[in-house]
Every structure is written in C-alpha cells, then in structure tokens.
Amino acid sequence: MSKRPPETNPFVQPGTEFSIHARWKTEKLTSSVPSNGEGGGTSVQYRATPIETATRVTMYTDGLLGFFVGLSSSAKDMVMYIASRLPYNQDYLELTEERYCAAMQVSRRTYFNARQQLENRIIIERVTRKGTYWINPAYLFKGNRMTMYPWAVKMDNAHPFEGTPPPNMIAVPRDISAANDYGAWD
Fold first, then answer.
1. Distance between CA atoms of 115 and 88, rounded to whole angstroms?
2. pLDDT by residue (tens digit) across 11-37?
3. What is this structure's pTM?
4. By Cβ atoms counted within 10 A, which residue in 41, 49, 164, 168 is the most buried?
5. Complete domains list, the chain, with CATH
C-alpha cells in the first residue's frame, strides 16, 4: 500500500522564488481539403503551445552549479541517487538511511553528512514523516513542471495570437495545466 503524499512542498509555495519560464511556440498547420465539386484546396490553422525554456533532463541546471561547487563528492552522489529514484510528477522522495547506505555502499556517517549538505543548500527538506524529503523542483524534477505548478509559469514572451488571432486559429486553452507532457493539448 502506497503512502499518502505529504502536505505541501515548501519549495513551491506562493511567495517563494520558484517560477517556471516558458515561451510560446507557434505552428502553422495545413491540411488538404477534399474536393467535392465545390472547390478543394488547403486549410491553414495555427496553434500556440507553451514550452518550458529551462534546460532539462531531470535535473534543471539554471543556478545548480553554484550549489554544487562546495558539495562533497558524497553529497553529489546523493543528488544523483535522488535523481535516479525520483518518481514521475512527484516532488518528494522516501530517502531512508538503510536503503541509501546499502545501495551506495557508504557508512551512516557519510549518509548523514551528505543529507545535511543537501538540506543546507536547499536541495532537499525534511518532511514531518520519517525518511521523507521534499525535493526542490527548481533543480530536480521528473515529469512536466508546467502541469504540476501552473501558477509558477512565467512566460518569457507574449502570446503570439494575443489581440488579433490569425484566421482559422485552433482554440488553445488559456490554462496551461491542460497541456500534456509533450506540450500538446489533450
């Protein structure tokens, strides 16, 4: 039986520095209109979708180097351990001493030192539940941050169809939380 998620991630509270930068990507869509005796031709439509601009694999690199400079190699190893085990679209992780020490073949002291460094650097934060930690999604996240935290998205450019939409524009939801993981709309 899986555990309930913790209350609320403190790294993504309104009023914090957390934000997701995105740009509008426009596409011109054309399709053939079958000829039925009343003329045929091509139909042209436009679509705009928000795309996150941060460099992403699972680890977001904007500002991360500054955090890594002073970390010990055991703390860097812990970051990679967390990144490799972070569940999809989840911003917390069960990080138990026993599992970590066994998997990484390190001592308890190494575990505690590495964990403390990551807590000090605001990469993880302990939850009231034992062995559970919030993961700062500004640096580590597996999934689509724009759908998980739509209120934090800050568009880096103006909507391309704002004010005067081109003819035959596809209706695009204003709520970006309707976007799926590939930036397309359901």
1. 22
2. 888 778 888 888 888 888 877 666 565
3. 0.60
4. 49
5. 20-54+149-186 (no CATH), 59-142 (1.10.10.10)
